[in-house]
Amino acid sequence: xxxxxxxxxxxxxxxxxxxxxxxxxxxxxxxxxxxxxxxxxxxxxxxxxxxxxxxxxxxxxxxxxxxxxxxxxxxxxxxxxxxxxxxxxxxxxxxxxxxxxxxxxxxxxxxxxxxxxxxxxxxxxxxxxxxxxxxxxxxxxxxxxxxxxxxxxxxxxxxxxxxxxxxxxxxxxxxxxxxxxxxxxxxxxxxxxxxxxxxxxxxxxxxxxxxxxxxxxxxxxxxxxxxxxxxxxxxxxxxxxxxxxxxxxxxxxxxxxxxxxxxxxxxxxxxxxxxxxxxxxxxxxxxxxxxxxxxxxxxxxxxxxxxxxxxxxxxxxxxxxxxxxxxxxxxxxxxxxxxxxxxxxxxxxxxxxxxxxxxxxxxxxxxxxxxxxxxxxxxxxxxxxxxxxxxxxxxxxxxxxxxxxxxxxxxxxx
Length: 414
What we know:
Blueprint: E1 3-4, H1 5-16, H2 26-41, H3 45-56, H4 65-70, H5 79-89, H6 96-103, H7 119-140, H8 145-152, H9 162-172, H10 175-180, E2 201-202, H11 204-219, H12 228-242, H13 247-259, H14 269-272, H15 280-287, H16 289-298, H17 304-311, H18 333-348, H19 359-371, H20 377-385, H21 387-409
Antiparallel strand pairs: 1-2
């Protein structure tokens, strides 16, 4: 069954908004407002779907809580996080058409003349800018509608283009527009309008190809996680092959490896980069990430196995893991293999609080964990038997990811 890209991005945008109570729902509301503006302007289907996808992910480059909150100021510049978002999306063949829209969603229309970008992409970026600023004023700051329009109208030609601004003024005159802005289901309504969107689907092959780019969205938020998912995926795939999994399960394992830390989108970079032990509150935030990742993937029909394996990668056979404390036969083989791959990669790589461990120390720790039933003994035995091969594959994958990370940040504005 094809997997709908919109379903995946809707879940992803929800994770972006879990970083703080102050940003909850922002991406989905902006997407709903942008969809309403697109309908009012009668944009072509391809432009409508590009605008909607860009709106769902427009602050994906806001890696830190500070940057996300700063972007919610009406006068925010936002150039750095918009550029980060552009760099994340442009490498994904399923999202590259939205990258320029995200890049310029904080760019005033008065600056468009000096930009070497497609005119229609800038038009869509400005429509997104208008939807974004409207949500900031109306929902976050509870500004009344007349004051909002009074602040936005004078910015025609300076901040906002005439056509999207006129579309907003027309919508603002409709009785139900303002009441619906805060509705929880507004972002999903356009997905059910077959005439409004082309129904973009992903085959498993396309999703496998794109999963590496999605893993960069997760990992590139911190230099200490920049290569982690790539290493876990390579390790988990080889363990799956050694365990005799069939081709479909091996492909699902690669997806699970790439996406196992998806829930870390809800963890601020300030916590990911902390050079020491987390305090109880920070640890609670960190420990939510498997559950958040499972919730994101649960809205995507066709990814049930990937969801379960990813959501359970911190569970332990003894029942002392998290978030659910699953034990024994309740943990499928895929979850147990992915858990071993995650621990192996984490021990071998550098972290904020320690350097990567030696191979013999890593295996000694993992075998001790297997003896305590905190890791699956079979998974650890498979890893031990092919440790040199697996470690070389992991190291090469992470070296390639490190180079991608360096390129990603080259020339980034301060």
